[in-house]
Design a protein that fits this description.
SusD_RagB_dom; TPR-like_helical_dom_sf; Serine Threonine Protein Phosphatase 5, Tetratricopeptide repeat; globular; 586 residues; mainly alpha; single chain
């Protein structure tokens, strides 16, 4: 942050040599003068607009929400993720250590006292600013842990430019204070301006922040990444409290038309979410304004050089509510010979995320055709790496394929399903989960897809549970989160806060059982098999697709003593000797 001010200072010094006294009385060139700008709440609104670009949304040719799990164990991109592989390096500069947005928020909060407008409007946009400061700082905490908390505009001689890092829990407490003030000032759903943050969105975000920090502190206790004297319980209680308030408030419900085979899928392929109660905040696209993306041409027609991992696929329960390891509906290896047999008798969400032969997709024009098989033998851009090709986000609307980069399917930014998951997990982590809690959270999600309820008296004990040291209940709640939020881009955050390196270290992600399957030998051209094992498709000793067999033979090299946090750039350590490097990056 100090670097920005130093650059400004040098620039002004150079200019001053050729300027008169009038120039010296002007406001710094990189900021808006409070005397000229902060007149009305419309000014506040316009200023806040710049911060909305921080939300992850569909954009351009390749940036779509369904790809944001490429940095986790849910997807297997053609090129492995450096962080999971343990191959990141300390950057010289950048690396996320940028404070520009926080500085801009601080400037707004310090200069709007004279704004004219109703108290409700002023408070609302002050609430937006505080929400975004919380958002930006939460990203810093997730990346770096301890960071300096700066809540006011700084000058080039401010001591805070050379401050030490504040403990992560101190920063999180400040984030929560910002969110509490935002919640108090923001207007409610229906009263806040459309497509903007409202009170309930801030509450949902608070539940996310508190659950993240609570589980981080709980599972990182005793490690270099933990917080001395804290087990995270206070944050877990706050997460359950605010999520419970949203649930009990009755303003939101899960999207459902009574079609368990498609309702989950159809949460993610709409161009207009204004009537979808589950979607709490979303981004709208408009061709006339030139605000579009290319999702409609990518999904489901291209593999986009990625694919669902076998680990994610195996997480989906059978339709009797039991894991595949103990369900009589799952017939082991015989069920893996085809995508159709794998998806049979499974949680319907599986075939609403993954393309299964027979799934309806849009062909040429407005013709609906059945999906045939994944694009295993194709160019890098178009191929599916695992055999489990992405279906989530696909639309049957011909307009979504009307031209290159002309798609307008909205981006879901916050949805009520996450609140339900946050509530159940926070209650379970504090040991206070009741059957009533399950029935108004996890079991609502299962009702939508026609799955059996999770019962406290009969939690399945999966012999292959992901977290062997934890209870069957915690495992099931984490499993539910994984399948409900698959390809939402949140999996890495979950792995980090759970200290779940056991799912990563030394493992190579696998795909479909290709050997002796109904796909083998079907990729031909002029009578020749386009798939050559060991050249453009790799199989492990059991016949499963093994994308990283050659590029990452020893599996992921994630270092649990280092890679839970990002390194601070060396240039920042030089500029501020008070900063210390994160563990393992010294």
């Amino acid at each position: 942050m100090k670097k920005i001010f130093l650059y400004i200072c040098l620039a002004l010094m150079a200019l001053c040599s050729a300027c008169n006294e009038e120039f010296l009385e002007r406001y710094p060139l990189d900021e808006i003068s409070p005397n000229d700008y902060w007149k009305s709440t419309e000014d506040m609104k316009l200023y806040c607009n710049q911060f909305y670009g921080a939300f992850p949304v569909h954009s351009g040719w390749w940036n779509f929400s369904v790809l944001w799990d490429n940095n986790s164990d849910n997807l297997v991109p053609g090129t492995f993720n450096n962080r999971l592989a343990g191959r990141d390096e300390v950057p010289t500069s950048g690396g996320g250590w940028n404070w520009d947005n926080i500085r801009k928020v601080n400037y707004m909060l310090a200069n709007t006292a004279s704004v004219e407008g109703t108290v409700a409007d002023v408070n609302h946009f002050m609430g937006e600013a505080r929400f975004f400061r919380a958002w930006f700082y939460f990203e810093k905490v997730k990346a770096f842990g301890d960071v300096p908390w700066i809540s006011k505009p700084l000058n080039i001689d401010s001591e805070e430019l050379y401050a030490k890092r504040d403990a992560r829990n101190v920063v999180v407490d400040s984030i929560i204070m910002d969110l509490d003030k935002a919640i108090a000032g923001l207007k409610e759903k229906g009263k806040a301006p459309a497509f903007r943050i409202n009170k309930e969105v801030a509450m949902a975000f608070k539940s996310r922040v508190c659950l993240f920090e609570g589980t981080w502190e709980k599972y990182h206790t005793g490690t270099p990444f933990g917080v001395n004297g804290s087990d995270g319980s206070k944050y877990l209680q706050l997460a359950a409290e605010v999520a419970g308030q949203l649930i009990d408030g009755g303003k939101f419900s899960l999207y459902s038309t009574g079609d368990p085979a498609m309702d989950y899928h159809n949460v993610f392929n709409k161009t207009d979410y204004s009537g979808v109660s589950e979607v709490m905040l979303w981004k709208k696209y408009d061709r006339e304004l030139g605000v579009t993306h290319n999702l409609g041409n990518r999904i489901p027609h291209q593999g986009m050089d990625t694919g669902l991992s076998k680990a994610l696929v195996d997480s989906y329960l059978c339709s009797d509510g039991l894991p595949i390891a103990i369900s009589p509906l799952y017939n082991g290896a015989n069920d893996q010979k085809s995508l159709v047999s794998i998806s049979a008798n499974r949680d319907p969400r599986f075939s609403q995320v993954t393309l299964i032969p027979g799934n309806k997709i849009l062909g040429e024009g407005d013709i609906i055709i059945p999906f045939e098989k994944p694009r295993l033998a194709d160019t890098q851009e178009n191929r599916c790496t695992t055999g489990y090709q992405i279906f989530k986000g696909a639309s049957l609307d011909p307009d979504e394929r009307s031209g290159a980069n002309q798609a307008t399917v909205g981006t879901v930014i916050f949805r009520f399903a996450e609140v339900l998951l946050n509530y159940a997990e926070a209650k379970a982590e504090t040991g206070n989960l009741t059957q009533g809690d399950l029935d108004k959270s996890i079991n609502k999600l299962r009702d939508r897809v026609g799955m059996p309820h999770l019962s406290l008296g009969a939690v399945p004990n999966d012999p292959n549970k992901a977290f062997s040291a934890l209870s069957a209940l915690i495992n099931e709640i984490r499993r539910e989160r994984r399948v409900e939020t698959a390809l939402d881009g949140t999996r890495l955050s979950d792995l980090l806060r759970w200290r779940a390196h056991e799912l990563i270290v030394g493992k190579r992600p696998k795909g479909f059982l290709y050997k002796d399957s109904d796909l083998q030998g079907t990729y031909t051209s002029d009578g020749q098999d386009r798939i050559i094992i060991g050249e453009n498709l790799f199989l492990d000793e059991n016949g499963y697709i093994d994308p990283y067999q050659k590029s990452l033979p020893a599996g992921y090299g994630f270092n649990p003593d280092r890679d839970y946090l990002r390194p601070i750039p060396t240039q920042e350590l030089t500029l501020n000797p008070q900063l210390s490097q994160n563990p393992g990056w010294e």
